[in-house]
Design brief:
The chain has four domains: 101 residues, Butyryl-Coa Dehydrogenase, subunit A, domain 1; 99 residues, Butyryl-CoA Dehydrogenase, subunit A, domain 2 (Beta Barrel), CATH 2.40.110.10; 56 residues, no CATH class; 157 residues, Up-down Bundle (Butyryl-CoA Dehydrogenase, subunit A, domain 3), CATH 1.20.140.10. Helices cover 44% and strands 18% of the residues. The protein has 13 helices and 14 strands. It is globular and about 80 Å long.
Length: 434
């Protein structure tokens, strides 16, 4: 999209949010049913904000613009739109169709934290074989028969998960490429085919997956300490054995984007569940996670914009100490600081989105800037509460929710300390020996 189209999109989203203010308020309170979530998905899809990164994979600016606009009305909704676009981008990169329904993502974990979430081990996924008698095809000389074993020709026709009935694969060729080898006859005939050459056995509990209670599917970036990586898609209409979705957890903020845990007990993911795997996929997903900091910064800017505007309007109307409180010097100073911070955050996300290099992670300086504003936002939102006095702690004006959302946003895309260490490790002399 160009600048004019983004302006029209922003106006459309803002008007939609104003018309649906009561609905968004009930969403933030967690009182929606499944039909309400389906209706919201359909409306946002009609507005054209859920699959931007599928149609134009590198148009982060448009997604950031939409997230910033929505965050001023509902930060939870902004986060849902961001994660749908990230999921759409991951589907597109893997050559899959765009997701049709809410998708859960581990938005509270950085790439460096993925190996610590669950235990991942590769498990062999063997080709499906069709066993053909060599003598029947006339392709092998007929040896003297033995009572227990017979030499046969094996033709690879697909892939399948290893079972006790499967014949071990001697071939390195990928799925769909014929290969052949002579093996002892194991008595097998054929088994169903699959699409990948390995599977992943997973144990553990992946905590606080964003959007999990309302999602129709979930994307998990599985990473192990020995550099194995796979992006796995699980459909909740057909979950593998050993996978269970937990109850909705009550979070500090962003309650309109509910979270829950996903428990895996000796679960095996293979075949069509694997969207992508290998080192190239790991770099691509990690780069997208890094670039997503721009989108989170846009959400934080929207929260701060709302906090400032509520405090400014209240200060212009509230009479105290024989004058409007905006005339008090301390109030004016606090408003000036809030406004300066608001302008700084907005300029940062706009500048960063324009400077993003396709398929490359953000620079250490850009990541540090995002980390700085993430830490500063709760303090700034607390000033917004203080400017309203006792009313700041009431639900009526929404400042208390903005403060909770600001604190919750601090954890998006990983724990601040984990992200700080990741930035520091880019410095060549950060090792203990230096």
């Amino acid at each position: 999209m160009d600048g004019e189209e983004r302006k029209i999109l922003r106006q459309s989203l803002s008007a939609w949010c104003v018309r649906n203010a009561n609905r968004l308020e009930s969403m933030e309170k967690g009182s929606w049913d499944a039909a309400s979530w389906e209706r919201l998905y359909a409306e946002l899809e009609e507005l054209g904000v859920l699959h931007v990164l599928f149609d134009t994979p590198h148009d982060l600016t448009t997604v950031a613009e939409a997230a910033n606009c929505l965050a001023a009305h509902s930060p939870s909704l902004a986060l849902l739109v961001v994660q749908q676009n990230l999921a759409a981008r991951l589907h597109g990169d893997a050559g899959a169709d765009p997701p049709m329904g809410w998708v859960a993502l581990p938005l509270y974990d950085s790439a460096a934290e993925w190996p610590q979430q669950v235990r991942v081990a590769t498990t062999p996924i063997l080709r499906t074989f069709k066993i053909l008698s060599a003598r029947e095809e006339g392709q092998l000389p007929s040896p003297a028969p033995t009572p227990a074993r017979e030499r046969v020709r094996v033709r690879a026709v697909g892939w399948a998960e290893q079972t006790s009935e499967s014949v071990p694969s001697p071939l390195p060729s990928p799925a769909g490429i014929a290969g052949e080898e002579v093996l002892p006859n194991a008595g097998a005939t054929s088994v169903a085919g699959n699409t990948r050459d390995r599977g992943y056995r997973v144990d553990g509990c992946w905590g606080s997956l964003s959007g999990l209670p309302i999602a129709s599917s979930v994307l998990l970036p599985l990473a192990s300490d020995d550099s194995e990586f796979a992006l796995v898609r699980l459909d909740f209409t057909n979950l593998p054995a050993g996978v269970a979705r937990g109850e909705t957890a009550r979070s500090l903020g962003l309650r309109g984007c509910p979270i829950a845990d996903l428990t895996c007990t000796d679960a095996v993911f293979s075949g069509s569940a694997i969207l992508a795997c290998g080192a190239a996929a790991a770099r691509s997903v990690a780069a997208l996670w890094s670039q997503a900091e721009v989108l989170m910064l846009a959400i934080r800017a929207g929260i701060l914009e709302r906090s400032y505007s509520v405090a400014r309007d209240y200060a212009a109307e509230r009479w105290q100490g024989k004058k409007i409180i905006v005339e008090h010097s301390l109030v004016r100073r606090m408003l000036a600081e809030l406004y300066g911070a608001r302008c700084s955050v907005e300029e940062s996300w706009r500048g960063m989105s324009a400077a993003v290099v396709a398929d490359e992670p953000l620079t250490a300086g850009q990541l540090s800037m995002s980390l700085h504003f993430a830490a500063a936002l709760p303090r700034l939102a607390a000033d917004g509460i203080q400017l309203l006095g006792g009313y700041g702690y009431m639900e009526e004006l929404g400042q208390e929710r903005l403060f909770r959302d600001a604190k919750q946003c601090e954890m998006l895309l990983g724990h601040p300390q984990a992200k700080s260490f990741s930035i520091w490790q880019r410095e060549p002399r950060c090792t203990a020996e230096s």
